[in-house]
What we know:
By secondary structure, this protein is an alpha/beta fold. It is 45% helix and 15% strand. A 7-stranded parallel sheet has the order 3-2-1-4-5-6-7, with helices on both faces.
Amino acid sequence: xxxxxxxxxxxxxxxxxxxxxxxxxxxxxxxxxxxxxxxxxxxxxxxxxxxxxxxxxxxxxxxxxxxxxxxxxxxxxxxxxxxxxxxxxxxxxxxxxxxxxxxxxxxxxxxxxxxxxxxxxxxxxxxxxxxxxxxxxxxxxxxxxxxxxxxxxxxxxxxxxxxxxxxxxxxxxxxxxxxxxxxxxxxxxxxxxxxxxxxxxxxxxxxxxxxxxxxxxxxxxxxxxxxxxxxxxxxxxxxxxxxxxxxxxxxxx
Length: 253
Ligand SMILES: NC(=O)c1ccc[n+]([C@@H]2O[C@H](COP(=O)([O-])OP(=O)(O)OC[C@H]3O[C@@H](n4cnc5c(N)ncnc54)[C@H](OP(=O)(O)O)[C@@H]3O)[C@@H](O)[C@H]2O)c1
């Protein structure tokens, strides 16, 4: 079974990293319920299995499916196996959503160097490993669509977010470079959320940054707003490349 992105916009094969909570879980649920075939990847398999249990029936009714896959994006080979698993199961991969991320905010002078490393490993290297895994498959298929979950932190820097914003500036730049280097058979979209309800702030260990985030995140919107943006981008006709969508709460300026 080999179809291309052009042929069946209602039944894309979509691999999503960081699908066990927040934005990734919302994207996985939204796309599966819309009849796409979703491979949901993350480290917490129990959470992924709960997601599959929640969505499977609606996905099947719409002609789609959802499968859980244990994945650590800091392991390049793991990411390769994730994409291979989608190809084994469905014969192709149409969309690679590089969404996994973490945000342990702190001021630089707190010197939480291990947390800087983790952000770089997941938010930057995890994205690169996703590109490395899917790009050869997209080339061989003659079609494919990359989605990167960046952040408004890819466009502005605030205190305590220097490293996080650095990783998101990098994610934005890598994704834009990928778009510029790609031929028209490959589409590339940056999804740029403002503040969205998720578990993202749970990774903050710095007390001052955690307190500041509580106020900031009070205006958060539902992650389904981001999922709808992804659904829109992937179901546009093949000659339309949605380059970037910024979705913020109306209260966020
Ligand atoms: N929420 C916001 O306000 C907001 C705003 C802008 C951008 N974003 C971006 O949105 C993306 C999703 O974050 P979220 O807000 O939905 O937060 P979240 O609820 O904490 O979700 C983060 C996801 O990343 C996964 N993840 C973390 N480390 C991983 C690893 N090593 N390997 C595989 N998966 C890993 C987590 O799964 P496991 O722990 O199970 O592995 C989880 O599924 C991130 O890139 C974040 O930077 C979020």
